[in-house]
Specification:
The complex is a heterodimer of chains A (about 200) and B (about 200). Chain A has about 200 residues and is an alpha+beta fold. Chain A folds into two domains: about 40 residues, no CATH class; about 160 residues, no CATH class. In chain A, strand 1 and strand 2 form a beta hairpin. In chain A, helix 1 packs antiparallel against helix 3 and helix 1 packs antiparallel against helix 6. In chain B, helix 1 packs antiparallel against helix 3 and helix 1 runs antiparallel to helix 6. Chain B starts with 10 loop residues before the first strand and ends in a 7-residue tail after the last helix. Classes of the chains: A alpha+beta (about 200), B mainly alpha (about 200). Chains A and B meet through strand 1, strand 5, strand 6, helix 2 and helix 3 of A and strand 1, strand 2, helix 3, helix 4 and helix 5 of B.
Chain lengths: ~200, ~200
């Protein structure tokens, strides 16, 4: 059974198919349950690496620049991602601060770090040291990055207090939007192909 | 319609790297990524029930207890999730009220109902509308984390509004319970195995 690589199994209903050859903009769906089986890759490995480096810059930016700034009279207050996590420790909600730190700081940073490591070596057609472990961690962390939810939360927060004071959306919001898009694009199905491309 | 099913061909999908593994060649671990192979997620039904019921119980304090406390010149006020939706609606911000209502009430309640439905029909071995039920499961995966919205709003407001002209906003236990509900329902969705929906008809149909 050496041609197992030519088989794909639907993760939703266990149906088995021969791996199809797809043209651009084509997708393969399971005939039984309608689940997505395969789609062409959006990006070349080197493009992914470039996106990854962009993500690193955005993370650097977001760790210093605030996502929101409010101004009342002469006073102004700014909040970065980390400030928002930190705020949850003020009160009986410490445990929630852990959840928030995990989902909007630790997971995205780890994802980007793992991707840079893997893609950096993939650029030279090599498997990175610890390839298996890194790929498994990427798959596990996948559902837990919540940057896009935080972005919507920031927009809601703007409207919630904007009636009473000036809220200034900053470049941080834009950076946050960019980073969440990048992570959705990079850490999804596309990176799984490294299994096939790096023997 | 007849389709080949992995379990009958002695194949198994590796849940980590999505390789089609031959169970005859390597019965326990994926030859590619080394993950343990399971034909179905282990104890899927029991785990999903346990996580979902825990979430359902915690959803009560999440709604009853206040999520935020505001101290300002006008006096103190505490707000529950529904209370803040009502206040926003009265203030004329019906759009924000709708977003928060969908994220904090609509999404969790939908998750409870859908998970309950999936668990009960799988338990009964129901063969009707399997395609639609699988689609419901994919919907669950998609909406999973959006109910975290209120948690992040509370976190940001707390970080921003500190000793200014607006007063001070502090988080309250309600939001903690709510965050736990979201995490537990996400774990419940992840522990459910949609392939169980299709296991009912490996021999007929």
């Amino acid at each position: 059974m050496s041609d197992n690589n030519q088989l794909i199994i639907c993760e939703y209903c266990d149906a088995v198919y021969q791996r199809p050859t797809l043209a651009r903009h084509q997708q393969a769906h399971c005939v039984r349950c309608g689940g997505l089986l395969a789609r062409p890759h959006l990006f070349h490995v080197d493009h992914l690496l470039a996106l990854c480096l962009t993500a690193i810059m955005l993370i650097g930016f977001l760790s210093f620049y605030p996502v929101l700034v409010i101004r009342t009279g002469g006073q102004s207050h700014a909040a970065t991602l980390v400030d928002a996590v930190w705020a949850l420790t003020k009160g009986p909600t410490d445990m929630l601060a852990l959840v928030a730190a995990f989902s909007i700081v630790i997971v995205p940073v780890t994802q980007v770090a793992l991707l840079t490591w893997l893609l950096g070596f993939a650029h030279f057609r090599q498997r990175a040291p610890g390839f298996r472990g890194c790929m498994r961690w990427l798959a596990t962390l996948g559902p837990w990055s919540m940057l896009e939810v935080f972005l919507l939360g920031a927009l809601v927060a703007v409207f919630k207090i904007s009636g009473r004071i000036d809220v200034l959306p900053t470049m941080g919001l834009l950076a946050l939007g960019g980073l969440s898009l990048l992570i959705i694009g990079m850490a999804g199905r596309d990176v799984q192909r490294l299994w096939d491309e790096l023997p | 319609m007849t389709v080949a099913v992995a379990a009958e061909l002695g194949l198994c999908l590796c849940h980590r790297c999505h390789k089609a593994c031959d169970l005859n060649a390597s019965p326990h671990t994926c030859p590619r990524c080394g993950a343990h192979l399971h034909r179905r997620k282990r104890n899927a039904i029991t785990r999903t029930w346990a996580l979902m019921l825990t979430a359902l119980i915690l959803y009560i304090p999440a709604n009853v207890l206040p999520i935020m406390h505001t101290t300002s010149f006008k006096g103190d006020s505490t707000a529950t999730i529904l209370g803040s939706v009502v206040t926003l609606w009265r203030d004329g911000a019906w759009d924000i009220a709708t977003i928060i209502f969908i994220a904090s009430v609509g999404v969790p309640v939908t998750k409870f109902l859908v998970l309950g439905l999936l668990l009960c029909t799988v338990h009964k071995g129901d063969t009707r509308s399997r395609r639609d039920r699988t689609r419901l499961y994919r919907g669950l995966e998609l909406i999973g984390y959006w109910s975290m919205l209120d948690v992040f709003v509370a976190a940001l407001l707390t970080a921003l509004v500190q000793f200014g002209a607006l007063g001070t906003i502090e988080p309250r236990p309600g939001i903690l319970f709510f965050g736990l509900v979201v995490v537990l329902t996400m774990l419940a969705t992840l522990s459910f195995d949609p392939r169980l929906i299709w296991d009912t008809d490996t021999h007929d149909d």
